[in-house]
Amino acid sequence: MLSPELGHYALALACVLAAVQGILPLIGAHRRDPRLMALAPGLAIGQLIGW
User: Which domain holds residue 22?
Assistant: First the structure.
């Protein structure tokens, strides 16, 4: 049985991953930095898995 604290932790982690996934690739596109743009697929997979 999962505790509510674990659910809150997972929700907070998902929110942080979503924010980072939305912001860093956009900054990379603005600066034309391929390293920042390359973070998007990995962050999407991390959000899918739930880490």
Answer: 11-49
